[in-house]
Amino acid sequence: SSGFGIFLPIAILHIFDGLVTVLFVLMIGALIFGFNLPFSSWPAFLLILLVASFSAMAFGLIISCLGLLTRDLNLVLNVASMAMLGLTGANFPLERIPVWLQPVGQLMPLTRSIEASRSLYAGMPLSDLSGMLIGELILGIVLMAFGVLIFNVMTRVAVRLGVLEMF
Predict the structure, then answer these.
(1) Are 136 and 55 in contact (CB under 8 A)?
(2) What's the distance, CA 73 to chain centroid?
(3) Phi and psi at residue 66, in whole multiples of 5°?
(4) pLDDT 10s digits, 9-58
(5) Reported pTM
(6) Residue of 139, 119, 142 whose CA lies nearest to 129
């Protein structure tokens, strides 16, 4: 079977879990901090969440493949999570990171989705955010294709060598 066929059912569960978590946290944010997204913006916000989840899932596939190549998966996960927090605009604007790191931030999944979410909250219509969403979707497709390719190659090597782990 293909790597995509193995990965997709697991990923869909995590996408659903992520969506439920985000919606729950937004409800808490509305109660405690007064977060208020107009009802008319919710369909656009859900679309942004789906695109963000897809690109994050694709990135996760690549990370999981890297985990097969190393005995220290925690190192891979820590580097990936710190890169996601520091280079996507999740914690602070990209303009505040060093100029030489800003292009790396633009190559990270979630960067455009975070920017689109903030712009939607500021009142920008979905039509003005389509470029960001298309860019995020294209990045997700490229990451997914690369991840499936890596997974399939690693699976063939593992079968040929008769091993379950790649290290």
Answers:
(1) yes
(2) 18
(3) -65, -35
(4) 877 888 788 888 888 998 898 899 888 888 888 899 999 999 998 899 89
(5) 0.84
(6) 119
Sign of dihedral through CA atoms 116, 64, 139, 54?
negative
How far, in Å, are 14, 30, 54, 123, 156 from residue 133 at the CA level?
20, 25, 11, 16, 34
> At CB < 8 A and 24+ separation, what contacts does 62-66 make?
62/143, 62/146, 62/147, 62/150, 64/7, 64/147, 64/151, 65/147, 65/150, 65/151, 65/154
Chain centroid offset of residue 14 CA: 11
Q: How far apart are CA 100 and CA 105, in angstroms?
A: 10
Distances (CA, A) of 59 to 75, 105, 156: 16, 14, 21
Residue 150 has pLDDT above 70, yes or no: yes
